[in-house]
């Protein structure tokens, strides 16, 4: 196994001992990046995930028990916050790409994480920051004041800001430390291991402390962990590579669209035919002169535009007045002429969007499964001896499945693949994403089968069981682990592969935004799963409030069919897609 890791460029932390002992030397000077940065990144990743899970994992219970918020309202608040935390990293990625780079944004985000947990700790420890405790037997509890809710929402806001800056920028920052694609693949696997592993620990250990000991101690531990993660991140600062921000990448994209629209009457085919003679396309500054949009020197960029999306090529065609007559490399009207590189960068984004869209249904199905599995668990036997597993804890099995699957992929499946294929590199990102699609289809089918069996026990006990929402099936809730294991394995294949694909195929100016694309998929899946359930409830009688009278298995079968159809769409997109930077 070590031989295989060494062949992949020393990617595995366990075997790259030399790079962990000291930075590589180059010309007598310390070379930035490499696996020397991994311990610092690992601690900050774990700390951020643990502290965030410690705050969010028990938010509904905190709102209900300590702030006396009605349970439905608390669930809605949690849903909104979860959606914000899922979509916020897209904004953070754009800020990192356009203005500051990864490291400053991640560092500031970690500071906000500490502040958020300090606010949560204060709400739990300062009596005046939450309403008085309920009197046993009272019909109504004292409601929280506007000021008390404002302090709590301030902590939630700080948590969202920290998620915006750190959640996926940490992935890009880590990948920036490596030159070899094999090293980046291994890092992304470890990133998701830490991402899900910290969620497991935070949702169990810290939540248990909050429930069994005190809210003050639970939030205080989370704040301490966040501070330790910030310290680890800063301690590794001298080792990190810090690629400079390239300015707003979306300005260049907008310029291409505007320039192409303004030159819509130009015969691009004729211009392309003449490209081998006189200069007809704009390539940007000469070697040694930068431009604000990250265009490469003309020596590296002197190629004709590709034929795909050829209508955009007119944006790079030089017309009268576009460039300085004394210096053909100097644009006079940047919103009328763009470099060939800028045109090709926009094309790279457009090529990958169909593949990106095919992953949305994966997140929709997983979102539905996570929500309804808790309700299924409430109606099943959760006893293990004398211990009753909390229904919400069943979700943790999905996170565990992801972590275990990632470990198996990294330590067993990839070495086996290389052995069987004669040392070839690992499966391509598209192949791994495809495996994730298949496993997700199987997971939805497994959920439907488990629910069908649960409802069979309900029918076996007659109408009394069916009409009683509190009736609990004797079927063990452990059956729910099977679909979670499949969906977790699917996530282990497709999520890291998506990050790898977007990172390597997006233009250099959009590397952070590339990682944020996964966050957008999760956010869209989260919101669209709610919309799908609402549509099913309006159109059918499958989902009444009484789970024992439901037809939830029909929803799972519907999802299995939709995800299978979506897999066909994915295969078509993958077949048509051509890698631009694979293995680089």
UniProtKB/TrEMBL annotation:
Annotated GO MF terms: transmembrane transporter activity
Pfam families xrefs:
PTR2 (PF00854)
Where is it predominantly found?
membrane
Stretches of Basic and acidic residues bias are at 18-28
Q: Which regions span the lipid bilayer?
A: 38-63, 75-96, 103-126, 146-166, 187-209, 215-236, 391-409, 430-450, 470-493, 514-535, 555-577
Where is this chain's protein located in or outside the cell?
Membrane
- What InterPro entries does the record tag this protein with? MFS_trans_sf, POT_fam
Segments of this protein annotated with the region Disordered: 1-30
Which cellular component appears as one GO term in the record?
Answer: membrane
Q: Which UniProt keywords apply?
A: Membrane, Transmembrane, Transmembrane helix
* Gene3D superfamilies to which the protein is assigned, alphabetical: MFS general substrate transporter like domains
User: What is this entry's stated membrane topology?
Assistant: Multi-pass membrane protein
Family membership noted in the UniProt record:
Belongs to the major facilitator superfamily. Proton-dependent oligopeptide transporter (POT/PTR) (TC 2.A.17) family.
PANTHER family cross-referenced by the UniProt entry? OLIGOPEPTIDE TRANSPORTER-RELATED (PTHR11654)
Q: What is this protein called?
A: Uncharacterized protein
Provenance organism: Oryza nivara
Traced from the root, the source organism's taxonomic lineage reads: Eukaryota, Viridiplantae, Streptophyta, Embryophyta, Tracheophyta
């Amino acid at each position: 196994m070590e031989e295989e890791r060494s062949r992949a460029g020393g990617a595995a932390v366990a075997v790259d001992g030399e790079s962990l002992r000291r930075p590589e030397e180059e010309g007598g000077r310390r070379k930035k990046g490499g696996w020397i940065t991994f311990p610092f990144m690992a601690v900050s990743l774990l700390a951020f995930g643990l502290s965030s899970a410690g705050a969010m994992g028990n938010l509904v219970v905190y709102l209900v028990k300590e702030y006396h918020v009605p349970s439905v309202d608390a669930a809605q608040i949690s849903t909104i916050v979860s959606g914000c935390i899922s979509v916020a990293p897209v904004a953070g990625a754009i800020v990192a790409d356009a203005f500051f780079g990864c490291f400053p944004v991640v560092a500031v985000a970690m500071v906000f994480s500490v502040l958020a947990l300090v606010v949560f700790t204060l709400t739990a420890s300062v009596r005046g920051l939450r309403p008085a405790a309920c009197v046993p037997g009272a019909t109504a509890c004292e409601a929280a004041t506007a000021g008390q809710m404002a302090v709590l929402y301030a902590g939630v806001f700080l948590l969202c800001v920290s998620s915006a800056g750190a959640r996926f920028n940490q992935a890009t920052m880590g990948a920036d430390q490596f030159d070899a694609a094999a090293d980046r693949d291994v890092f992304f696997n470890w990133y998701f291991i830490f991402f899900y592993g910290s969620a497991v620990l935070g949702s169990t250990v810290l939540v248990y402390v909050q429930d069994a000991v005190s809210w003050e101690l639970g939030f205080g531990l989370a704040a301490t962990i966040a501070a330790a993660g910030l310290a680890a991140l800063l301690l590794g600062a001298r080792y990190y590579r810090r690629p400079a921000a390239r300015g707003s990448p979306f300005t260049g994209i907008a310029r291409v669209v505007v320039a192409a629209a303004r030159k819509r009457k130009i015969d691009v085919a004729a211009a392309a035919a003449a490209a081998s003679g006189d200069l007809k396309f704009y390539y940007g500054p000469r070697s040694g002169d930068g431009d604000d949009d990250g265009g490469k020197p003309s020596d590296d960029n002197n190629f004709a535009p590709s034929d795909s999306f050829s209508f955009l090529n007119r944006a790079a065609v030089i017309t009268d007045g576009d460039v300085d007559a004394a210096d053909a490399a100097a644009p006079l009207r940047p919103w009328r002429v763009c470099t060939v590189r800028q045109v090709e960068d926009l094309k790279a984004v457009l090529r990958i969007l169909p593949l990106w869209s095919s992953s949305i249904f994966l997140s929709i199905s997983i979102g539905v499964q996570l929500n309804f599995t808790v309700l299924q668990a409430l109606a099943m036997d959760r006893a293990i001896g004398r211990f009753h597993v909390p229904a919400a804890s069943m979700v943790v099995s999905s996170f565990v499945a992801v972590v275990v699957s990632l470990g198996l992929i990294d330590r067993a499946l990839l070495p086996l693949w290389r052995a069987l294929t004669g040392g070839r590199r690992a499966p391509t990102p598209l192949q791994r994403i495809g495996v994730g699609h298949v496993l997700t289809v199987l997971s939805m089918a497994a959920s439907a089968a488990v629910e069908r069996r649960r409802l069979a026990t309900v029918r076996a006990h007659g109408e009394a069981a069916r009409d009683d929402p509190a009736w609990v099936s004797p079927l063990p809730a452990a059956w729910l682990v099977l679909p979670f294991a499949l969906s977790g394995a699917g996530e282990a294949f497709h999520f890291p592969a998506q990050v790898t694909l977007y990172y390597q195929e997006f233009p250099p100016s959009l590397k952070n935004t590339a990682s944020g694309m996964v966050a957008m998929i999760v956010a869209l899946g989260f919101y669209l799963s709610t919309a799908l359930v609402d549509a099913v409830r309006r159109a059918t009688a499958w989902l009444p409030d009484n789970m024992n009278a439901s037809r939830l298995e029909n929803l799972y079968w519907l999802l299995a069919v939709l995800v299978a159809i979506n897999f066909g769409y994915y295969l078509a997109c993958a077949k048509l897609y051509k890698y631009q930077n694979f293995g680089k």
